[in-house]
Amino acid sequence: MMRKNWFNRLLLSYLPVFFVISLSLLLITYLTLNEMSKRSAIRANELLSQSIMQLIDNTLLDLDTLMQQQLMHNDKIKLFFQTVAPADRQQADYEAAAALNDLMSKNPMIGSVYLFRTEDQVVLTPATRTTVEKFGDKYFIGKYVKSLRPFRWLDKREYQEHEENPPRQVVSLIKFGKISDGSLMVVNVNTDSLSGIIRGMSESNLNFVDLIDTQGKVLATKEFTQTSDGLKVQDTDPSKGPELSYARSSYTGWTIRSGIYSGNILEWVSSLFYVWIVVGFLVILAGIVWLVFVTRRNYKPIQVMMRRISDYAGPSMKHSELKDRVDELQYIGITLDDLMDKSHTLQEQNKENLAYRKKQLFLNIMEGVSLDQNWEQELKELGFDEHHGCFIVVLTEIDGIHSFCSRYNHRDQHLLKHIVRSVTAELASTRQTRVWSEWVHDNRLGALYFFEEPGIAEEEMMPLAEKLRHWVQNLLAFTVTIGVGPLVLQPEQISASYQASLQALEYKASFGNNRLISLADLSSRAKGEVYKHLQETRQLSQSYRSGDADWEDQFNDLYRSLQSRLYTREDLISLHNHLLYTLTKEVAALPAELQQRWKDEADGQLKLILEQAETMEELHDGFYRVLLQAYTEMQEYRERNNNHQLIQSVKQYISHNYSNPDLSLMHLSNEFGLGSSYLSRLFKEAFGVKFIDYVVQVRIEKATELLQQTEETIQDIAATVGYPRSLTFIRAFKKHMGITPGNYRKSYWEAAP
């Protein structure tokens, strides 16, 4: 272990001086601040005294005002002092006592309150009703009952309601309930409550605060002693310390006295202020002299290092100029950093090359690129040096990659991907397997699992993948879908397992996010063919353009049909692209205002959904939301049109009479009393299609339902939908659907599950 003799030498040279000088500076600073704090303390005590006095005055004045309001406006208390019938007197006194009790419960500062009625010498408290002779405060009542002094708070006195109760220290306020006979209302405030106000505003243990009455006695203070009867306020002790401030109340005549306790060590230190200042400066001067001496002695090793570095650098122009611009320690540090940077660069290059080789080898194995005979040796160098009898490739795909990229910045994405990869390796370490994982795409983590025996692989793989999926779901803010490839026994077959897992993920669009997909899942459902649904999208677009509410049912039926089979995301995007194309084509026949709204709003939103949606459910929900909003706006536009009700009536008439072979524009003109050209123009403006084309569309839609749901002949179906001649029906059907009625029925029944 390297000894630190030179470090200890430097430490022992500077540390004592540092502490001495620091303590001296702290002492000087402390003494200076102490003098400043003394002046601040005086000002603070003045403000404290004024604040406490103001708070006490406001509290007592509020009680004074409250008592006056009660005497003037409280009917129950006023009734106590009035002459009433003897039969009603007891009830009136009971209600007055209840009013006093409510007054005390709402005003915690009131220690006690009672009423005295001169008429019958009755005293009423919140709890009792008695005569003045039996009342404990009778002498106080006798003293002030006939007094004509102005109302004000009296100095501290003892108040005892009953002889069995201990006396309490209170200040009292007297109010005349009835001036004509001297009836009184007396409110007592315990001096402990006033002490509580003082203690609440002055919590420091370094100062004292006393409230003095007009006779010089202590009313309240923040000091108290514990007695058998409770807390007792201590009297003012003149030896407490110097009085720094006081405040006198113009309302009560009482005084607040405050100051700092005597005997504090600060007072003793302050008395020697200038002596300590001189001593401190002398100590600092001695420390500076010592530092200069020690620095000169300790500089010699640096000189030796400078000479050696100069010899190493040689006559290099770079080092010569650098030496002239920086000090010795910077020069030494820069030279060492230069050497370390070169070493670090070489190490990083080696790590990058190793990581690149590892990932490239992984991709070659996955893609089936022909491997040389040394690939197993490279695996051993990467840590896979054990014998393994079988392999499984698993692809873990982050769900909602667009949302993932928008939610996290590049650094956070890299961190989360590293977490997923680390968890994959950690979970594998708990099983009888090893794993080699690399990110093969922005959102796909490829993992090659090595197993010793096929039986172990079949038993462990699915639970291991499920555990990874469950871990990500519970502990991260996103989910993953995992494609599990089949078990292979030869290294050359690894690419086949990779392709199978890739294929499994392609069908995530049908299975949904956040799940496992294996070959067994793919074989559980038949694969669908997109072209069989193209006609459905066309019919849906026509219904949507014409304003039929049935478009929602057709859209949901299309979705349910897609759910019954498996489709890749590419298939679903292709189908929805075709739907968007047909919708745009149909909307082009609507009025210009509706076309512009579609172009400005719905078209862009639907294209964004096609770009970002990963599953069938996301495509359905996104398309349905946008189409429903656009449809609502179209309907509102049509309803604002004055002819909307008329056109809807015509449309309803057609839906009820489409089977009539004589249904024509002239027939409708006679039915609704309108000119045929005018009716044709209104129909075209409302639905973007000619009248005859709309009638054909309705008839063909009804015919397709009959072809799907019944076994009626083509001739019967033609007659049912308004075509007396079956040949005319077949031509119209083929022109509209692109296929004859017979072939349509045959292909539908063959495709039916």
Features:
753 residues, alpha+beta, 6-stranded antiparallel β-sheet, 5-stranded mixed β-sheet, 29 helices, 17 strands, flat
Low-confidence stretches: 224-236
Structure class: alpha+beta
**Number of helical regions:** 29
Strand content: 5-15%
Give the helix level as a range of percent: 55-70%
Distance between the termini: 81 Å
Widest beta sheet: strand line-up: 3-2-1-6-5-4
Q: Per the principal axes of the C-alpha atoms, what is the gross shape?
A: flat
Biggest sheet architecture: 6 strands, antiparallel
Using the CA coordinates, give the radius of gyration. 50 Å
Structure, described:
It is a single chain. The chain is 61% helix and 13% strand. It is flat and about 125 Å long. The strands form four sheets. It has a six-stranded antiparallel beta sheet with strand order 3-2-1-6-5-4. Strands 14-15-13-16-17 form a five-stranded mixed beta sheet, with helices on both faces. With 753 residues, the protein is an alpha+beta fold.
What's the layout of helices and strands?
Blueprint: H1 5-73, H2 75-80, H3 86-106, E1 112-117, E2 122-124, E3 129-131, H4 138-144, E4 157-159, E5 168-178, E6 183-190, H5 191-201, E7 207-212, E8 218-221, E9 224-227, E10 230-233, E11 243-248, E12 255-260, H6 265-271, H7 273-298, H8 300-313, H9 317-325, H10 328-367, H11 375-381, E13 390-398, H12 401-407, H13 410-429, E14 434-441, E15 444-451, H14 454-475, E16 480-484, H15 494-506, H16 508-511, E17 516-517, H17 519-523, H18 534-546, H19 551-563, H20 569-587, H21 592-612, H22 616-640, H23 644-657, H24 665-672, H25 676-687, H26 691-709, H27 714-720, H28 726-737, H29 741-751
Parallel strand pairs: 16-17
Antiparallel strand pairs: 1-2, 1-6, 2-3, 4-5, 5-6, 7-8, 7-12, 9-10, 11-12, 13-15, 13-16, 14-15
Helix pairs in contact: 1-5, 1-7, 8-10, 13-14, 18-19, 18-20, 19-22, 20-21, 21-22
